[in-house]
Amino acid sequence: MELAFGQFASLGPITVWKINPLFKGLGFCSVCVSWLIALYYNVIIAHVLFYLGASFTKQLPWVHCDHEWSAPNCKPPIYNGNFSANITLIPEGQPCNATHTLVNGSCIFIPSVTPTEDYYYNYVLNQSDFPEIMGGVSWKLTITLFVAWLFVCLVLIKGISSLGKIVYFTAIFPYVMLFILLIRGVTLPGPGPAKGILFYLTPRFEELKNARVWSDAATQIFYSLSACSGGLIAMSSYNKFNNNCYRDSLIVSLINCGTSVFAGLVIFSVLGYMAEEKGVDIESVVKGGPGLAFIVYPEALSKMPVAPLWSVFFFIMMATLGFGSQFSIVECVLSALTDEFSEWLSPRKNNIIFRISFCFLMFLLGLPMVSQGGIHLLNLVDYSVSGFPLLFVALLELIAISYIYGYPRFSEDIKMMLGFKPNVYWMVCWLGVSPLVVGLVIIANCVLLEKPEYAPGLLYPSSHISLGWCIALFPIMWIPGWFLYYYCRHGGYDILRINMMPLAGWGPAEASNRPVGSVHYSNILSADGDSVQIQWNRNYTPGYITSIASGLSKLGSGNELSEGSATESQSNLQRPSCSTKSASENEKDTPM
Question: H or E element: which one contains 455?
Fold first, then answer.
């Protein structure tokens, strides 16, 4: 739907809502989501760049605990499948040693950390123990964050023309690296790689009874496809008018899911080997979030022959994948703002200055996330953005296009581009299945809502939870906010004012109590204070009242858009395609 939507109008995710101006807040909401994602996503890329630079060495720095930053309880991992705390008896009168702490008179064992955990948390992040303690900014990550934003700025400084050339490399190279790492993973000694792949491919049907699994899966597919975040609309707006977006949508979906399965084979072949080496179950070495990329996999790489080489390959692949996504996310925000404020940002010089300023501002806004408590803030933003905002955009987008604009009209628009209408499957999905599923997912997320944790079993403080809700509501509030603004600004206030005025018959019930010759409250005041006589009609319609209000209030051009001005505005905002198009191809007036 979004590919066809953007391609038909050749407009960005904000301006494209000429289809329904009252729902333009959906465009602002999706762009705000992309902006927030871009803000913290480049911080993760900064971590990747740091690991990439640290891999160019004879011995990887996360293989031992002999560094000055190493914690006292850092030691090579020895797993026995039981990570519960152990109580150790210490002779009375003697203090607890470095790996124990005194609790109720007993010395409690502090579990050891692996060298990879020690390297990531104590050296790379220099992480604070609590979210409230932000601490100082890490100069190491500040440099890599600046390099990441500098690279993004250089690639996008000329807009889509420069991005189109870079994306050929960022889209293809990761598959080469994934294939190389898969070959290396399956050829590791022992039965571990085969066990890991078997564990990955074995379905657990009992999990289908868990509503949280369905909710997380739905949210993840939105995230991985960049659906409802404006990216698909922004990129498709550069297509030729007659491009087969139906074919493209199927290819993109299949490649996205296929890549996820392929990457899983790569990851679990190595995790199986790692679990076999430690003599534990695979579940014991699997971690989610940054732990997989910066703790588990680097530890597995350190056990391979010529470990630095494989580490360089892995983090080059991670950087390429990260930048490939980041380029599209940032370009979505930039193109959307350029379209919306084309009068100021369309000139080439102004647009270049705007893009450079935007990237530098994003670098500054990302600095709190590279402080000692920055990882806690990053995880909070990620938790808050990736759920409700995307789901609300999806539901309202389906309603606005399939029901308000109308599926028959939208299918005619698609036929105008492709020569054929969507089949019955798409009609059933867009009119029934998709709104129902998204609505159920929103309800499930509300019912199964859990407070975020900054460590296993440790909840964020109430102040951070409130901040998380503010982050989640910030994009969503654009939807009702713009709706009310546009409604009141373009006649809605007049309708409300007229319908709240007393009727002409209002006054004392007894005629003898009325002043002689008075027509009580039969007048309506216009916007400039003039008194105008109205003959009330009990069968009036909202459209009739709108025309009355428009004529009486004398608001002029502020509430009235002439057909010529609307056409001129559309021609100014309509984006050019990457390829040369004729004037007839650029005229995409939607049939009413």
Answer: strand 453-455
**String of b and e for 437-458 (b: at least 16 CB within 10 Å)?**
ebeebbebbeeeeeebebeeee
**CA 51/CA 49 separation, integer angstroms:** 5
Q: DSSP of 305-341, one letter per residue?
A: TTHHHHHHHHHHHHHHHHHHHHHHHHHHHHHHHHHHT
The total number of residues shown for the chain amounts to 592
Other beta carbons within 10 angstroms of residue 61's beta carbon come to: 18
What are the angstrom distances between the C-alpha of 110 and each of 44, 72, 88, 96, 298? 29, 10, 10, 11, 24
Q: Identify the CA nearest to 267 among candidates 251, 287, 247.
A: 287
| Residue type at position 520 | H
pLDDT tens for each residue of 513-549: 766 655 444 444 444 444 444 444 444 444 444 444 4
Q: Percent helix, strand and coil across the chain, each rounded to 5?
A: 65, 5, 30
Containing H/E element for 409? helix 407-418
Q: Which of 281, 228, 536 has its CA nearest to residue 390?
A: 228
Distances (CA, A) of 402 to 31, 281, 399: 22, 49, 5
Structure tokens at 538: 């009990």
Structure tokens at 488: 């009141």
Q: How large is the greatest C-alpha to C-alpha distance in the chain, in angstroms? A: 107
Neighbours of 150 (CB within 10 A): 13
CA atoms within 13 A on the CB side of 351: 21
Question: In the predicted model, is pLDDT for residue 295 greater than 60?
Answer: yes
Report the alpha-carbon distance of residue 242 to residue 10 in Å, rounded: 11
- The gap between the terminal CA atoms of the chain, to the nearest Å, is 19
Instruction: For residue 365, report the phi and psi dihedrals to the nearest 5 degrees.
Output: -70, -25
**Encoding tokens for residue 265?**
């084979």
Q: pLDDT per residue over 76-123, tens digit each?
A: 655 434 333 333 444 444 555 544 544 445 555 556 678 888 899 889
Walk across the sheet containing 87-88 and list its strands.
Answer: 87-88, 106-109, 100-103
Q: What are phi and psi of 187, to 5 degrees?
A: -95, 5
Give the separation between CA 543 and CA 375, rounded to whole angstroms.
Answer: 54
For residues 69 and 55, what is the distance between their CA atoms, to the nearest angstrom? Answer: 18
* Upper half-sphere CA count for residue 7 (Cβ side, 13 Å): 23
Rg (alpha carbons) of the chain, rounded to whole number: 30
Q: With 0-12 CB in 10 A as exposed, 13-18 as middle and 19+ as buried, what is 79?
A: middle
Pairing of strands 106-109, 87-88: antiparallel
Measure the CA–CA gap between 378 and 369, rounded to whole angstroms.
6
CA dihedral in degrees (65, 69, 73, 75; nearest 10)? -10
**What number of helices (H) and strands (E) belong to the chain?**
25, 7
